[in-house]
Structure formats: C-alpha cells, structure tokens
C-alpha cells in the first residue's frame, strides 16, 4: 500500500517545525545545543557528492547519512529562493523535514524495532522494518525526486537512482520515472508545490530587492 500525504497539510507541519531552524544562523540554540540534525556536516550537500555509477547518481537511502544528504542537497539547491528572508538559509520552509529525520535518528526510531537485526542499533543503518523510516522515505526521497524533476538542481547530466533495501523492495520507488509510474499524483503534487512555492519566493525576493 502506497502512503499518500496532502502536500499542503505537510507543508503546514514543516513550517510549524521551522522555528527550530530559525536559529540556523548560529550553530547552537539558546541552550548551547547543536540545532542541526546529527552528522549534518558530514552529509553530502551536492548531487555530485554522491557516487556516480553507470552514468547514474546512486544514493542508498537506507543509510542515515545518505538520506540526510538528500535533504541537505535539497536545502542547498533551494537556498537561493530564501536569501531575502534570512541569513544562512534559515528561512527555508523545508528545514522541518531534515530536523524531523535527525530527531528520528537520535531517538532510535529508524532502528529495527524487532531487534531481529542490528540495523540502526549503534550504526547508520535505516531499517526497512521501522514504520518511522518507511514513512520518512516518502518525506525525503519523493520530495527530492520531485525537485529533480522540477529542475531545482538545474540540468542534471545523470539520472538519479535510489538503491533498494534488501527486503520489501516493492514497497518503494527508486527514480523519477519509477515513482512517476507508481505514484503519479504524489509526484505531480511535489513537483507543482516546489515549482509554485519557490517561484513565488523568487518573485517576493525580487520585489523586496527593488523596494
């Protein structure tokens, strides 16, 4: 069964989470704690930071650091649309997504809840047996692939492909074409939401600049 999310409802949640990221202009919050997701500085921040194999950018989203890299590259690619609204990309409405992912990792929600494997227990593995990690797939990889299709990353010379987990492969999609064939409505919504929202922010930025 393919989960379906209302993109507008989801973005309300994302914006609600965003005040935690509003302090991203510094590395710590008011209490001196790190406000970024765990290992943020070690995650890939550009598409070409991921391996290229057989003319494809390959990402293994069942590794916490690589899934976090999808978020980080998405944040970086969209940063130009939020320059007028805060320094260091702090006003980016997508911040809530990696912050939630970091919280899930930090609290052990991405680990195998059955303890049948060591996945997620003291390592960066994301378990396909975790409800949290499976739902998060649709809040990370689908928006990411929607952004690829919408052209947010510019002209990408390689196809982008996710590597599947060892189990339950049929529960997920792995490329723009694959996801479009399986969940076209959700892909359309993410593509449209990214295009429309970021276009409006570009207009607002130009308006602010010319005032």
UniProtKB/TrEMBL annotation:
Its main location: secreted. GO terms for cellular component: extracellular space. Keywords: Glycoprotein, Secreted, Signal. It is found in: Secreted. InterPro entries: Leg1. Residues 1-24 form the signal peptide. The keyword Secreted applies. Belongs to the LEG1 family. This is Uncharacterized protein.
């Amino acid at each position: 069964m393919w989960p379906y999310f209302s993109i507008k409802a989801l973005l309300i949640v994302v914006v609600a989470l965003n005040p935690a990221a509003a302090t991203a202009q510094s590395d710590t919050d008011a209490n001196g704690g790190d406000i970024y997701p765990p290992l943020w500085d070690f995650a890939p921040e550009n598409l070409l930071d991921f391996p290229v194999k057989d003319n494809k950018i390959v990402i293994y989203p069942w590794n916490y650091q690589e899934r976090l890299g999808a978020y980080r590259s998405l944040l970086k690619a969209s940063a130009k649309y939020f320059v007028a609204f805060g320094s260091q990309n702090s006003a980016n409405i997508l911040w809530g997504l990696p912050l939630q992912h970091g919280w899930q990792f930090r609290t052990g929600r991405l680990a195998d809840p059955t303890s049948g494997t060591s996945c997620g227990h003291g390592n960066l593995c994301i378990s396909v047996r975790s409800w949290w990690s499976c739902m998060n797939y649709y809040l990370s990889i689908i928006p990411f692939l929607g952004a690829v299709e919408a052209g947010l990353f510019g002209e990408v010379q390689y196809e982008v492909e996710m590597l599947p987990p060892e189990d339950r492969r049929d529960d997920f999609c792995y490329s723009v074409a694959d996801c479009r064939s399986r969940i076209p409505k959700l892909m359309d919504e993410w593509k449209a939401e990214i295009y429309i929202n970021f276009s409006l922010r570009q207009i607002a930025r130009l308006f602010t600049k010319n005032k």
